[in-house]
Design brief:
Four copies of one chain form a homotetramer. Chain A has 364 residues and is an alpha+beta fold. The first copy, chain A, has a single domain (5-351), classed as Chorismate synthase, AroC fold (4-Layer Sandwich), CATH 3.60.150. Chain A is built from nine helices and 19 strands. Chain A has helices at 38-48, 96-99, 108-115, 131-149, 170-173, 186-199, 226-235, 256-259, 328-351; strands at residues 5-6, 11-15, 22-28, 65-67, 71-72, 75-76, 81-86, 101-102, 152-160, 163-164, 205-212, 240-245, 263-264, 267-268, 276-277, 280-281, 286-292, 302-306, 311-314. In chain A, the strands form six sheets. Chain A has a five-stranded antiparallel sheet, with helices on one face. In chain A, strands 10-9-11-17-12 form a five-stranded antiparallel sheet. The first copy, chain A, has a three-stranded antiparallel sheet with strand order 8-18-19. In chain A, a hairpin with a 2-residue loop joins strand 5 (71-72) and strand 6. In chain A, helix 4 (131-149) packs across helix 9 (328-351). Chain A is globular, with a radius of gyration of 21 Å. Chain A starts with a strand and ends in a 13-residue tail after the last helix. Chains A and B meet through strand 1, helix 3, helix 7, strand 12 and helix 8 of A and strand 1, helix 3, helix 7, strand 12 and helix 8 of B.
Chain lengths: 364, 364, 364, 364
């Protein structure tokens, strides 16, 4: 499989650069009969794009998705679904200077070494623009998971720089521009962000994604374990530098007696496993957490080099987002949904005949 | 691809349960001309197996690997390499009790829900035994990477429970049973482990893996980014619950000006990226870190349920390893080597190095 | 991999139904630096579409392809290439009758059994319209093969119903509407077709595709042999019912001494192998031949059934093409080019030709 | 995917050369609960190996298969099934002369150009020995298909050189050494073979494979159509040079009114489609036919060249089989079974929820 296709049975193949004519993707393997419309995807796309908070009336990036195939009379046909988002916000800028530079902590240098050249306009394929299609594709998966299986996938910001959230109130998540589930932290986050914006610097973030209602049995050991595929999917998001499942790095200092999630007829007594045991879903909520690095597109000068190896000072002008990590929330939800969709189809196929009478444990 | 095959061009497919007749694997895509013998793999296998420390003369699990194909006159032919390890240490035990139980924090429950049954002897396919083949396959990759490309992949224990290592001295790593690179911490670790063993409890660990000498340009955006594939490979190891690249979760609280690795003609000024930028290797050392959960095979009783849903008290008898995480070091090295090998071939071709002087025949 | 993606390193993923909004595809894995424009693809598309012969000035299906990504400043960047063809010739017809019918020898019945429903407008995804994208993608492969490797892929009609061609003159192939390489047979074919058109019946055809200049060594035994992948690619074209390589079915009655292509320092003495030996290219021209079945879209009534199982008489109205097989010529060329491209990259790497002089940075 | 793995959900990965230590394979994706033992596979293997006819008491190649994993208490567990056949009939011969030669119509030349070297003992990986594992893996698929779905896959010789069979009596197929279904042709075939053996020459053959009881709906358009995957699987068998489905190459001269399989409430009126329509199974018997080339291992001298390009005369000594094509019958059955198994699992997964009330047509 090429690097731009994800999944085995439910596959998502994307194309598009930040300044190309359009972004698009092909979703293959969506079962027939699912009601689907542009609205299903537009909702999630709107959450992702910049300007939703401080500039709610302005739409700088239209991000309007169009369905080109695979849907007939409002339902999926089982044939591939083609999606497209035309790039409208393409300002013609003078990029000639950037063309010859490698900005520190950007993919310029590595893309150049891989391809021998690069589309330097705004980051090209390495730009976060391509994630728009992942969100669109993820919306299809989320709809199927929710409607057919009652699986709910939701994410939230659990940490912005030094500020950690203490409470998890799902209702709060969409009430503020941070996907923050803790109302008490919002103003602190706003102040922090304003300060950063003034400084011209940026900060990282931590996002949690939770999938509830996942039936036990999903995952294909030993290499396509559910947690391994989730790690792959989440680490493939721009700016992600770490992935944890359940207790994650806290496991290091946990005793075995602490860590193990004991089982009673009423349910599991804890969820340090994060919903995945032996690489297979246990029926418990699947809990993943990712670390996003701070953006490197800063107006504060940084040391870079040009294509001939000479030192240059690099400054990024234009719109400045002090914490791009926040915007990863819908993308992380989308990737988790896509992985679960793929695994559901793989399992349902390979073990559809298996009848298990052993009770499924809930959680106390 | 099925769940038991890893990789795109350099693929590893494994089989085998802890108490089956044998473990085995097929390595496909190894370029021709690489000198290879059982010794190359045995070395890494010996490092992995239990008893290397306190019982260096005893070999409870022989773990002797045999090459069945793909090597001729001491060199790989380019055809698939079949490897086998016959299971010799199969004690006939009375497993009937375990058969009907789901041990907490083991894969019993999830395997049962997936397959409707399971080979309950010692964990079956979910047991860590299968990792022996990964180490064997990884040895092939490591040899190629080192001989052909000068790439060195090495791992070490960076944290055992609460004990963190301060120094990194590669020479120390194989001088103690912990893969500990800091001589000053070894006795502390030994004492800690002895205490745990007496308690009957277990603890987690953190392993770091480093690949040096990796050329820039490896990785296939956007889904098969090098870091995404590494995360996949490492998370697929039993007991891994978290993966970080470079600064990892420390990124959350890093400012952009701190995080970015500035570039000068003499080189990069730091390596928070961990050697991967935009999903592609930058030429810097690739640094990954994983969290291993504490083993759940304890003699301290835990609450489980049986196949009918009744509560049972579960005790694991037999050999007790208080920190299985340590043993993941060679496995993590193996997985990183396999990923790099696969990506190298994707970038440069499986036979790109083959030089054939035999004339090409035209047609009369 | 899903059913709508072809290839391992050079992959083509398509979407689109005959009456959907658009057809499209994503080409992933095209190496960077190849000059590419819409014209390169339009040329091959124009050869494929109906109306090129008797109605050369009319364009009923515009089939105008647009490049949406992956090309910058006239050259491929190595990132995915998105292509789109908007469907313009969508007559709003009354399909309600057809919706409930299964036409004999059409995919209606099988699509219904697979998906539980189908887009019945004009054949939906099973229509030959989707092959337009294959031709567009194939044009990219053909350009690379020709420019970089000097490989030429060309096809021609070798038999139309009972009329076999005797001579192979490449110059003739594009001088007539049949892709016929034998000028002496053209008027016979025209007369035959006119008679069929009057009858309202149809006939099959045989197409040969030849690739010259292919270096030896392409093909991945044992399952992805070059000939096996070619057979897959060609059999996947609508209406193909048979594939032969080299002497093909003539081998059955050939003696071993006849069949074998002897070798001398000057070259091979024959090419019964068709350029593939042991599943790997030999350097000889690769010769494949396919059988196309006659179209089933006839105005002559045929027996079908409706969705409830009742007998119906089926008549197809509208444009009638007595030999759709002819139109498979550019599609067969495209598929062969795509297979060769994929195998070349597997053998030699996706970026093996990229030369980067920019210095590699070390670490301070 | 590498070249030595076949399939998407039910995958078969093989290794082994004719003179290596062993042949083996890993079957991944077999659902749990299928009763399986070595006998199931040994039966099909015994049919394949040489010496079954004239030397029924001699076993020159033992071909004893052993199950190493994936089966517990007589049933598959859903985990990978490892199979092994130790190579016992390895005569130590003097191959030094052959090492430097390229025998005409053998894979020597192409393997050399691909890998830069080759295991020249008896053909190495290009030898037909590797097909033994395909037969073993195919036996697993056939058992599942038959037991779970009532699908029967059977093959027979339909033509040996110039001798065509007229009748199809399944009972006859295993009563003679030719897999010939027409008792009246057996002595003619024996005489023909004896003559060939005296001449020292060889001849080709045609094998037909039929799958009955296949439910409609299997196949994944557009690239993984069932017929395309079958063509791939069958063309991957050594010596196959052509594949047809249904009417195959006869389609060329068939009128549309002749070719189409009309449908009535009682069933299809014909089966020119060969059981596949639009790339999806129709419920009709799937009928494929393959052409096998004559073996090139002859004692009659042929012109070859050596590694330096000098002309040499090549003679093959040792056991001589005038028609290797015959032996392809169990291999063709195995490949068809593997393809159907894979597609069943892919379909059952992606469309397991689809309920179709439209009646399934049988055949008149």
């Amino acid at each position: 499989m090429s690097g731009n296709t994800f999944g085995k049975l439910f596959t998502v193949t994307t194309f598009g650069e930040s300044h190309g004519a359009a972004l698009g993707c092909i979703i293959d393997g969506c079962p027939p009969g699912l009601e689907l419309s542009e609205e299903d995807m537009q909702r999630d796309l709107d959450r992702r794009k910049p300007g939703t908070s401080r500039h709610t009336t302005q739409r700088r990036e239209a991000d309007e998705v169009r369905i080109l195939s695979g849907v007939f009379e409002g339902k999926t046909t089982g044939t591939p679904i083609g999606l497209i988002i035309e790039n409208t916000d393409q300002r013609s800028k003078d990029y000639s200077r950037i063309a010859a530079q490698f900005r520190p902590a950007h993919a310029d240098y590595t893309y150049h070494h891989k391809y021998g050249a690069r589309d330097y306009r705004g980051g090209g394929r390495s730009s976060a623009r391509e994630t728009a299609m992942r969100v669109a594709a993820g919306a299809v998966a989320r709809k199927f998971l929710e409607q057919r299986l009652g699986i709910k996938v939701r994410g939230y910001l659990s940490q912005l720089g030094p500020i950690k959230t203490d409470k998890l109130d799902w209702e709060q998540v969409h009430q503020n521009p941070f996907f923050c589930p803790d109302a008490d932290k919002v103003s602190e986050m706003e102040a922090y962000m304003d300060a950063l914006r003034k400084e011209g610097d940026s900060i990282g973030a931590r996002i949690n994604v939770v999938a509830e209602g996942v039936p036990p049995g999903l995952g294909e050991p030993i290499f396509d374990r559910l947690d391994a595929d989730l790690a792959h999917a989440l680490m493939s998001i721009n700016a992600v530098k770490g992935v944890e499942i359940g207790a994650g790095f806290d496991c290091i200092e946990q005793k075995g007696t602490e860590h193990r999630d004991e089982m009673t007829p009423e349910g599991f007594l804890s969820n340090n496993a994060g919903g995945v045991l032996g690489g297979i879903s246990s029926g418990q909520p699947i809990v993943a957490s990712i670390a996003l690095k701070p953006t490197s597109s800063l107006r504060l000068p940084g040391k870079g080099i040009d294509v001939d190896g000479n030192p240059v000072e690099v400054i990024t002008t234009g719109r400045h987002d002090p914490c791009v990590g926040i915007r990863a929330t819908p993308i992380a939800e989308a990737m988790m949904a896509i992985v679960l969709m793929d695994h559901y189809l793989r399992h349902r196929g390979q073990n559809g005949d298996v009848e298990v009478t052993t009770p499924v444990l809930g959680q106390l």
